[in-house]
Amino acid sequence: MNKNNIDIFEGLGSYIDATHIKIEGKDAQIIEAKNSIIATGSKPGTLPFISLDKERVITSTEALKLKEIPKHLVIIGGGVIGLELGQVYCRLGAKVSVIEYADRITPIMDAGLSKELMKVMKKQGVKFFLSHGVNKVSRKGDVVKVTAKDKKGGEVHFEGDYCLVSVGRKAYTKGLGLEKIGVDVNERGQVSVNDHLQTNISNIYAIGDVVKGAMLAHKAEEEGVVVAEYLAGEKPHINYNLIPGIVYTWPEAAAVGKTEDELKTEKIEYKAGKFSMRALGRSRASGDIDGFVKVLADKNTDEILGVHMVGARVADLIMEAAVAMEFRASAEDLARICHGHPTYSEAVKEAAKAAWDGKPLNA
């Protein structure tokens, strides 16, 4: 920040008008800005009937600074954050139960990926309760009780010493004074923006978790670059389809592009190639044999439409797929590239080869 001559003001900022921002706190003053970017992020969400005491009924914020290992951690929500933190505490010795409303964990990711990740985490000791809708959470002393209904309507009871509420995050705009200056906010509390990330007030922009889209740090970073370049007179572009989604469990899970469900919904004919990490020399050598790489390609053109992975270091491997897709590579293109041996990346080549079918197009 110093290298780039950026001034930092500490405090709570709020708009007085479109060009003046009031700072309360350490560096209290009013500053003037020709343009401004709202990048206030998000905070953990909850359910209307849950009272977060932040001691025993907690969010991810408190889960990162517990002073003891829970005996039984009950997690509401089988999304990314719940799985990452759940696995951490499972490895530290806690009993972990994950309650998910949907019929699979990580419901917005590819179904095959969700199934594989759950299989691996079950093997590690995490217990899953899918298609369970939580309707009550209560605490008495050091005991937290959670009540849920299963898919048959039966009532299921859980009892633990901690309950992690991990049901997503919501945009944080409290105290910014957006209503006062007329910045549009949608029904989900997110700041409304156009394709240039510009709000309805022409000199105010918004990026990251505070606007629509995946709540990912790397997505926010790219949006910040887009706004800076746009203000500098450039014509930047961001391809939201090629922003990778990553789950930092072990093994990791990563994905970019379309899922099979999305391709079916959009009636796009596709072919799928899959390669198991168990068959990979590097995985066998390191002992990380769980997982797979799956490549989805257009049935007619062979263009890669989506790549989904579970395995060691796939958070890094996914970028090979993202680069290929940015240049609209075919499965054949990826399959024909010589990959080093033994490496984890060979799984990408083999999955691409399986999707391509090993035959030149139109042969």
Can you put this structure into words, describing what you see?
- The protein is of the alpha/beta class and 363 residues long.
- It has three domains: 12-34 and 173-238, FAD/NAD(P)-binding domain (3-Layer(bba) Sandwich), CATH 3.50.50; 57-169, FAD/NAD(P)-binding domain, CATH 3.50.50.60; 242-356, 2-Layer Sandwich (Enolase-like, domain 1), CATH 3.30.390.
- The chain is built from ten helices and 20 strands.
- α2 (80-91) links the parallel β7 and β8.
Topology:
Elements (H helix, E strand, L loop, with lengths): L11 E6 L2 E5 L4 E4 L3 E3 L3 E3 L12 E2 L1 H4 L8 E5 L3 H12 L3 E5 L11 H14 L2 E3 L3 E8 L2 E7 L5 E6 L1 E4 L3 E3 L6 H4 L22 E3 L10 H15 L13 E3 L4 E6 L2 H6 L4 E7 L4 H6 L5 E7 L5 E8 L2 H13 L4 H6 L9 H11 L7
Parallel strand pairs: 4-15, 6-13, 7-8, 7-13, 8-9
Antiparallel strand pairs: 1-2, 2-3, 5-14, 10-11, 11-12, 16-17, 17-20, 18-19, 19-20
